[in-house]
Specification:
Elements: H1 7-18, E1 21-25, H2 30-36, E2 44-46, H3 51-59, E3 67-70, H4 81-88, E4 93-96, H5 99-107, E5 111-117, H6 121-134, E6 138-142, H7 147-153, E7 162-165, H8 171-179, E8 184-187
Helix pairs in contact: 5-6
């Protein structure tokens, strides 16, 4: 299964170049409304909540940025082929640590984001092997501040765009991560969401 090609992925990546700070929300509350109401974000990452509430909110939105759902964390949808097909009808992208889910979403022409948790050398090595097999649109490294060191040691990361997410406290950290080569950052810190 090949990775997504063409318009959807290129539009996503162009949006990240325009505004590299991506809002991440854990539920469909005020933070979700703030993120979804701006058309300046390349995407909104949904990292929790209920899929049916999400779909209801998205259907009511006149204009919105692309939405990428972490299928491993959102309730009400299974991390399987049927779940991916359902999500492909409602959102633009999928986030997962699971290679099979990324491959299924690639087959549905979705933007795919493979997460790697940089908790130790073994986890990084396993994560990079999964990325090579799954061929996601982007890779996301967590926590974000692990990205600069990881990129310096694992040059294969430069073969595709990389995002960094988690535990970002301020714009100095965002700048440091971007200057280290990341395409963008995802954060739930609303103070860092900026309209370009």
């Amino acid at each position: 299964m090949g990775k997504v090609t063409g318009g959807r992925a290129e539009a996503f990546l162009q949006g990240v170049r325009y505004n590299p700070v991506l809002p991440a929300v854990r539920s469909q509350d005020e933070s979700f409304e703030a993120a979804i109401s701006s058309d300046h974000h390349a995407a909104v990452f949904v990292l929790g909540g209920d899929i049916f509430e999400l779909v209801h909110r998205l259907e009511g939105a006149d204009s919105r940025p692309p939405v990428c759902v972490n299928v491993d964390l959102v309730s009400g949808v299974a991390a399987d082929a049927s779940g991916v097909r359902f999500l492909a009808r409602h959102v633009e992208g999928i986030i997962s640590t699971n290679r099979n889910i990324i491959e299924l979403a690639n087959a549905e022409s979705m933007v795919t984001i493979q997460r790697i948790f940089a908790i130790d050398a073994g986890a990084i090595e396993r994560g990079l092997k999964v990325v090579n097999r799954a061929a996601p649109t982007l890779v996301e490294i967590l926590p974000a501040l692990a990205y600069p060191q990881m990129a310096a040691q694992h040059h294969e990361l430069y073969s595709r765009p990389v995002l960094a997410g988690g535990l970002i406290q301020d714009m100095d950290e965002v700048t440091y991560i971007l200057e280290s080569g990341a395409a963008g950052v995802s954060t739930s810190n609303q103070g860092l969401w900026r309209d370009a």
